[in-house]
Write a structure and sequence with these properties.
8-stranded antiparallel sheet; 3% helix; Jelly Rolls; single chain; 1 helix; mainly beta; 230 residues
Length: 230
Amino acid sequence: MEPSAEAVSITEENSFNGWVLSDADKPWWKIKDGIITGGSLEKPVPLNTWLILEEEYENFELTFQIKFTGSEDKEQKNSGVQVRSHYDGKHMIGYQVDAGPSHPQRVINDGLGYWGDIFDEGRRRKLVTAINQTELKASIKQWDDWNSYKIVCDGRTIKTWINGILAQDFTEPDPKVPANGIIALQAHKGGKFLVQFKNMKIKELPATEGSTKWGDPDMSNGGVKKKKRK
């Protein structure tokens, strides 16, 4: 999908300037000619790995294209984009707009895969599955080709489109769940694969008056469940 005219690029040609990448995550991420690549075809990703945008956002429109390279086998191969999230150096907490192929050992959404789901990473750990799955399944290229994403976070609503098809129209029921935070790219642990992102652009939208922020004393942590990171 085409970004709004006011949208600005959040990637450079060959630099992660503006992004945060820990020493543990550096081996799993590369950027060349404006294309970000996560994961590996030589060895499995041992732990979820993150590339984090330095600036925090509340309401915004984010557009990008995403592609997976690999092969179908029993290992999990998926990715996603964290929005309105928090990272404490070990744990990622917040909404993840999912992406990724299905595989023979686990049928996800009748073969659609993880595409278009929203997962509450490290918090309530609830999965909201994509809508319009029949149309999405016919449109999405599972492997070796680009799919276009648009994510709009506005107020307590998160809407997403894949290849122009509405995949989510989600409203957070708890007003105390933070409505701001980081944006981060994920390569999921478990398999040998590459996930690539390009043409990433963002347009910031006006903030919502009275919205809950990370660190507010009365915010809801949603039952955060922290996992050990080796």
